[in-house]
Amino acid sequence: MLCFPIGLIFMWSDSCRWRRFTKTAVSMGIMLLIIALALPMTRAPQAGTGGVRYVSAEGAADPMGPTISPDQDRYEAYVPKYVPQATTVVAPTPTPVPHYVYCNDGGKYYHKKSCAYYKTSTPRATLIQAVNAGYKRCPTCKPPTIAQIYGDTLD
User: Fold this and answer.
1) Where are the alpha helices (DSSP H) in 43-98?
2) Which residue from 12, 17, 116, 132 has the fewest beta carbons nearer than 10 Å?
């Protein structure tokens, strides 16, 4: 009973000598037991009766809550009110257009495509990638610098 799925498999195997009717009855009993245990878990919870009473908007309904006697001091109740905060609209900073240069493997400088040191096998990179990788401006072809292309807009 503790390992009923395995027990059912062994019960229906050829090694068990029970009659077919007994095997069917045991299988149906286990199925009914599983359904009886699982069915209450599938029902939606029922709404209980609470202490809430609906009050009509018309004056005919009695107000709920304790009444204030005439000799009691009246008090003010704070009711918070939603006040939307002023929003600030910030324009997004435009993404700089990439400017491509050419960097030879093992070299120190980045080049223009018209430079004498440019070859068809020279890898292309953005100017920002080349400077971040440690390449310097070629003194022969004098490609642009970051300040010349992007100015002060690039950090």
Assistant:
1) none
2) 17
Q: 106-118: per-residue pLDDT in tens? A: 889 999 999 998 8
Q: What is the CA radius of gyration of the chain?
A: 42
Torsion angle, alpha carbons of 62, 64, 70, 72, to 10: 180
Q: Round to whole Å and give the CA distance between 121 and 106.
A: 13
Say whether 144 sits in a helix, a strand or coil. coil
101 with 143: CB under 8 angstroms?
yes
What pTM value is reported for the model? 0.39
DSSP 105-133: TT-SEEE-TTSTT--TTPPEEEHHHHHHT
